[in-house]
Structures are given as structure tokens and as C-alpha cells.
Amino acid sequence: MPDTEVTLHRRDDGVAVVRLDRPKANALSVSVLEQLESAASALIADPPGAVVVWGGERTFSAGADISEFAGRAEATRIAARFRAAFDAVAAIPRTTIAAISGYALGGGCELALACDLRVVGERARLGQPEVLLGIIPGAGGTQRLSRLVGVSRAKDLVLTGRQLGAAEALRIGLVDRVVPDDGVFASAVDLAAGLAAGAVVAHAMIKRAIDQGISGSLAAGLDLEATLFADAFDTEDAAIGVESFRQSGPGHARFVGR
């Protein structure tokens, strides 16, 4: 068995940290992907308040483990492992934040895309360089990226394989916050802790409405939103939030996560 290369730590503030730890570049081997899927599955079964996915201070992930690449059969197997792991991350019913220092390339960028938000350091580099190997992205680089930044920008990035700096990534909507390099993890955890103290059941509904709604028609999305809007009023948090607003105005509710 390989050493543990993905760890899961639940903090007292409600934040769970999923840590990639495979020196030197956090290459996403089949083993790492299996461990990542296991960690995500545990968070689906027992959700925290929010989740930070972190690759360390040097590199988020430089992508797939190229040493495992071979022919079509191996490519099919590897693609299935990527799909299972990243779909599990995307299915966590809480806000997930990718904390990106250094490189997030190829599969590393696709892992960040599977998260809800992305906090990056000023010297971070992101991209989908698969075409430079004569192949294409196989874990969301043509699909999640297009939905996030638009079709034309996604084609530019995937067709050229070029890397983006943090400023450009922020400008096109690929990332959400740019912070000093030495503050990436702390900034991501602060954001996650604030979310963890909020209406986390509503967060799950918001994710479902957006993620499922965007893949269908506007009418179907609006129907789903209306259903979830009504469902939200069955929660204790809704009762707390409405009463708090009546008594004190917005921003003072202390939610219980039910």
C-alpha cells in the first residue's frame, strides 16, 4: 500500500481540510485519486460546515501522473478514476474552496474546477496544457471550464495549452480571490469558517440549484429553484433567520445547520 497522500482533517470551526501531500508536485496518480474519492465520500456522508482543498505552500497540483499514461485501455481506466474522484468532490453538499499556491495545471486545474470557489496566490499559475502532449483534458477541462468562463475563453485555454497568471485568471472568472502567496491557506480557511457558521443546509440547496439548473433549460432550472425555495422553509435555519431578521435586521442570525 502507498503512503497516505491525501489526508482529511476536521477543524473545530467546522472546516474540513483535504490535503494533497505527494511530493514534489502532487501528481494525481490513480492511488491519489482513489484516496481523494474516499475523503470526499466521507464528507458527503458526514458533511462539515465547509471544505478547503489544499496542496501545500508550493504546488496545488501539477496534474496527472504522466508515468501512468500508456495506451487507450489505461487512458480509459485513468479517466474513470478522475471522474469518480472529481464528481465526489463536486457532490459534497457544502461549499468547497480550492486553496491554490503555485501550479494548478491539467488535472490539478480540473480539481480546482470541481470545487465551488478558488482562492489563489499572486504567483499562482493555472492552465490545461494537455494539448502540448497531443491529448485533451479528460477530467472536466472541456466541460466545467466552459461552464465557468464561457466557451470561447475555454477554447483559447485548452487549444493553446497556455498558462494563466493569477490576475488574468481573476479577470476571466476562473478564480475568485487573489491573495498574497503566504496567505493562501489562511484566506481560504477564513472564508470557509465564515461559511461554516452560516446556513449550511441552504448552501447545499444553492449548490444543487446552480449545478443542476445550469445543465438544463431555464424553465427546468426555475422549477428546481422554486421547489428548493419552498423546501428551505422546512429547516430550522429558515425559522431562525426569518425571526432574527424581524427582530434585528439582516446579518445577525445564529444558524444551527438543520
Total count of helical runs of at least 4 residues: 10
Spatial strand order of the main sheet: 1-2-3-4-6-9
Q: What composes the largest sheet?
A: 6 strands, mixed
Give the tally of β-strands. Answer: 9
Domain module tally: 2
The secondary structure category is: alpha/beta
The arrangement of helices and strands along the chain is: EEHEHEEHEEHHEHEHHHH
Average the pLDDT over all residues and give the rounded result. 94
State the distance separating the first and last CA atoms: 39 Å
Describe the protein in words.
The protein has 258 residues and is of the alpha/beta class. The chain has two domains: 6-196, Alpha-Beta Complex (2-enoyl-CoA Hydratase, Chain A, domain 1), CATH 3.90.226; 200-248, Lyase 2-enoyl-coa Hydratase, Chain  A, domain 2. Helices cover 47% and strands 15% of the residues. It contains ten helices and nine strands. It has helices spanning 30-45, 72-91, 107-114, 144-149, 151-160, 166-171, 184-196, 200-213, 218-232, 236-248; strands spanning 6-10, 15-20, 50-54, 96-100, 103-105, 117-121, 125-127, 163-165, 177-179. The strands form two sheets. A six-stranded mixed beta sheet has the order 1-2-3-4-6-9, sandwiched between helices. Strands 5-7-8 form a three-stranded mixed beta sheet. β2 (15-20), α1 and β3 (50-54) form a beta-alpha-beta unit. α2 packs parallel to α3 (107-114) and α8 packs antiparallel against α9 (218-232).
